[in-house]
């Protein structure tokens, strides 16, 4: 930028100097002609006033002007005439009035070498002042650009420090109403976004590593059980009791089912992380809840299950809603050891435009500090018999529908756990 400005100035200064000199020369020439012609007109006026020749010459005399008055009789007044040359400007006039000056010849001459000297002086002044202006401008530009572009140097240093692994530095411009100030502010915003994304990515990576380690740990138990049962079966002799053989086969089935369930849950979580694809359609919540109640009564006949609330419908994926409700009911069954009470409540909140499915039991409940932690992956409760993935999967399904799943106190204040599934009601309808 400094070199460009100096190049422009180097072009502009000579052009400006030439223009100034040309204007000066033209104006000086015009002034000289005006002076000589004005003196000649003054001489005509003085002659009409019958001013004596000597006084006339004295009155029209001026600095730089040579006056010669020659009467008709040959008598001369003023300076003797000079031979015209290239540096002599001459104006001749014949006086038309006066007793002694009528018919006299007036010669006015001026030496143009004075103008040439002034022109040369002006040229030198322009050259010297132009060179000085160029030097001063160069120094001013260098210092000014260094000061003005200091934020760019700071930005470069900050970028290099970040590239070297040092985080947290910011430009923090004092003014954001200039181009560089706005650039520095945008640079800080970009760094905030990048470092935030980097922290998120590192956190996700750390969580993924922990998740993989926990999943491997969880899979190790059923796989070890499968391996032990299989090896024991292979080592059985023909005279081994049938009961022993059936116990090992049952262990194989149970552990393989447990491993399969864990793998299926891991796949569901992977689908949630990748962006779950839903197949929504109208779903009647009472019918869905009754189907799960019938299933629950088959596996836990001693469990009391009650359903309350209107028959509401939502536009959702019925398979995913079934998984959510089945998971919550299985958790309630486990919490009450299959002999407690479970309530399913369906209601709507018109002011929030949501539909809520509440599943609550009379078990020991979930302590407040653990009510968010149980939604983390591979976290087991005290009475949990699963893989620790059911609730994270259920919450993932709820959020994929634009809803939420939370654990709260029971609204009636009784002991037990209460899970609330909230779904958006934008496309819901009430069935009488």
Automatic annotation (TrEMBL):
HAMP domain residues: 146-199
UniProt KW keywords: Kinase, Membrane, Phosphoprotein, Transferase, Transmembrane, Transmembrane helix, Two-component regulatory system
Transmembrane as UniProt keyword: yes
Residue intervals passing through the bilayer: 6-24, 125-149
Start and end residues of each Histidine kinase domain: 214-427
This enzyme's EC code(s): 2.7.13.3
Classification via Gene3D superfamilies: 1.10.287.130, 6.10.340.10, Histidine kinase-like ATPase, C-terminal domain
CDD domains registered for this protein in UniProt: HAMP, HATPase, HisKA
Protein localization: Cell membrane
Pfam family, one: HAMP
Protein name in UniProt: histidine kinase
Source organism of the structure: Kribbella voronezhensis
Taxonomic lineage of the native organism: Bacteria, Bacillati, Actinomycetota, Actinomycetes, Propionibacteriales
